[in-house]
Amino acid sequence: MAGPVIVVGAGPAGIRAAERLVEAGLRPVLIEESARDGGQIYRRQPEGFTRPHEALYGSEAAKARALHAAAEALRPRVDWRPETLVWAARDNALLVNAAGRSESLPYAALILATGATDRVMPLPGWTLPGVTTLGGAQIALKAQACTIGARPVFLGTGPLLYLVAWQYLKAGAAVQAVLDTSPFMKRVEALPWMLARPGLVVRGWTYTRDLQKAGVRIATGIMPVAIEGDDRAAAVRWRDATGQDHRTECDAVGIGYGLRSETQLADLARCAFAFDAGARQWLPVADEDGRAGVPGVYLAGDGAQVRGADAAELAGRLAACAALRDLGTAVDEIEMVTLRRRLAPMTRFRRGLERAFPWPANLAAALPDEALVCRCEAITAGTLRRAGGEYGAPEVNRAKAFSRTGMGRCQGRMCGLAAAEVLAAARGEPIEAVGRLRGAAPVKPLPVATEAAP
Amino acid sequence: MTRADVIIVGGGLMGAATALFLRQRGVSVILLERDLVGSHASGTNFGNVRRQGRFLPQLPLANRSREIWGRLPEVIGEDAEFLPSGHLRVAFSDAAIGKLEAYARDARPYGLELELITGNALRARFPFLSPEARMASYSPLDGHANPRLAAPAFARAARRAGAEVQERTEVLSIAKSAEDFLVETPAGTFRAPILQVSSGAWGGRMAEAFGEPVPITPRGPQMGVTEPVPYRIAPVLGVASDVTEEGVYLRQVERGNIVFGGGLRSEASLDTKRARLDPVNTLRQLPYLARLLPAVRALSVIRTWSGVEGYMRDDIPVMGPSAKVPGLFYAFGFCGHGFQLGPGVGATMAELIATGSPGVPIDPFLISRFAASEGDPR
């Protein structure tokens, strides 16, 4: 295999991976889809914006500053390619598109640090203007200093639900409610795992306390019913844990149920996948150091498993160590053992989060037939259920072929996990029995006007 | 052990349609499909319901098929999104113009009327075409359909008509007793005095097992689709060219997306059952698509795919009775142009099996054509 080591994604995992490769004397290619490094969590504001790190990243300011400094120090030592989309993979090469031009980049090793996106469960009204994901709501604040609304409701589950609500509160928004599908008792039950990182548990409590102090309604164990509004979101209807119905008026809704790993590139690079019961997602298989089943391919960060930014920094460095060692460069075993040891509690914490804030799979079965599941193609739950029932589609790719679910611009990245739940529930089968959507190029839309580099 | 009059191995469009038409003739049928009905070439092809441009002796079969496409709701209870919206073959060179003229002349005796359009008339009727287009051959009654829906719809209709359709049932071995074929699968042994092999690219292996090797190669078509835009382009468009790379084609579905394919093909594997699209081929297609339909340059490709197709050395399929084994029939190796033929192949094979006569001429497709050649046919 010829060529450099390529790192895809300049978030916490990708930056630390590239940094370790540079320490070993290599000049890796570092590819980033957006204009700047930092990833989602440490996303940078546009050039010319001057808010300080403390304002943007709060308690994480020191880590953000350190990561941004590391990225800047790397700039002259790597082949830095921002605003570059990896749209396909073939035979130890990536096809990358930048400024309307596609070129083939061969690699000796490939480290995928592709991150994660919000995990969404549809509900009636979720495609109304004014509804955005929690991550989207946070990026609006972080990158643009904008809010999604003056009176938002935040709906879903997971630590991001409370963090975003808290950040909006601090930014001056009149948060109308925080509606969490997870019962509070789940958090108590998950404590033995969560206490692997006690500092994070405490921080979560402070967000909740600040929200409560400010008079924000926080309800747990709720069931979302619908988002209402004529031409944009105006209210959320929900049922509380005792079965009582509520209607909370608002001018925007942020929804999200944790994160889902971005795995298409791993799929296109021919990595094997296995069902992860905790994440309730098919994930690319990798060993402890990030080696995928395919020689020369390594996975790090939330794209491999959602363990958060701190773990991503360690996993990125560890994957780089593994790649270096496989390429014949000596790596001190102590370094790798130390990284693995530091990652262990983060893996345990991740399992705690999955217990505390479970993906509400049951909502898929309860979704009304007329609710949209696939928003790109405007496919309803009823159409999808018919593909699985009357037309007998036993798995998601077949259901896609019959119903178009997951066939649109996002290629099922947004709706795929929920669609699988709807299909499995309709067929009365366990979620893993309906499989996963096979990845296909382009990872994101490829303009027809794209020129092929010679 | 389950017994029927006919066992069909392979639930693509050919097998599913044959099963339905055999049932309509009162023949009992078991259809065995290794994966899901229509999940390989039948489900991943472009969806062309095109007669023009075909090997001329294939036109009677294509005409028979076109007639069935036209009454799909009556035949299978749904239309598989068949749109008889016309087909245009577009010429950009003198050589291609000459070929279009010759083909239009030669196709007429087969009942295929083609209209040759040039100059201002071409631009007036099809304003979306490239100004570089010199001539187009218009086949008004051709069109397109949804390949993801067609074969499964035929299989459901066959099942409603009484056929036993077994999906996810791989054939492990086939033996021939004095009176029956014995087909062993993980779901048990099936037997019938008549067997049809319609297993697409995998058909060659089965024919070889019966002592009739054929020169067949698996390849993958390079398909793609754009984001949706308002529905404006009724006919299917294809470039008439002898240069493989230039030979792209496209169609707009009513939903608005533009489906495209053509040009080079990628490798396909009979063992992994997958054909991996080569994204470099997609990049090569783009300028030719834009030459055919300049407005497509404003769109983005949202998905690509491929599938395992079986290509014969002479680019025409294997269809008809075995030359060696009584009771054995073939319908496979449709060389990437079988989708339009599917319903007609089903009707023809059913007629051949039930009556001994195919109803339309199929002599050019007989497997015996390879037995005559010297040495190893591959």
UniProtKB/TrEMBL annotation, chain A:
InterPro entries: BFD-like_2Fe2S-bd_dom, BFD-like_2Fe2S-bd_dom_sf, FAD/NAD-bd_sf, FAD/NAD-binding_dom, Metab_Enz_Cyan_OpOx_G3PDH, Opine_Oxase_asu/HCN_bsu. Keywords: Oxidoreductase. SUPFAM superfamilies: FAD/NAD(P)-binding domain (SSF51905). One of its GO terms (molecular function) is oxidoreductase activity. It comes from the Bacteria. It holds the Pfam family Pyr_redox_2. Residues 5-307 form the FAD/NAD(P)-binding domain. Residues 372-424 form the BFD-like [2Fe-2S]-binding domain. PANTHER family: ANAEROBIC GLYCEROL-3-PHOSPHATE DEHYDROGENASE SUBUNIT B. This is NAD(P)/FAD-dependent oxidoreductase. It comes from Neoroseomonas oryzicola.
From TrEMBL, chain B:
This is FAD-binding oxidoreductase. GO terms for molecular function: oxidoreductase activity. One of its GO terms (cellular component) is cytoplasm. Keywords: Oxidoreductase. PANTHER family: FAD-DEPENDENT OXIDOREDUCTASE DOMAIN-CONTAINING PROTEIN 1, SARCOSINE DEHYDROGENASE-RELATED. Pfam families: DAO. InterPro entries: FAD-dep_OxRdtase (IPR006076), FAD/NAD-bd_sf (IPR036188). Residues 5-352 form the FAD dependent oxidoreductase domain. The keyword Transcription regulation does not apply.
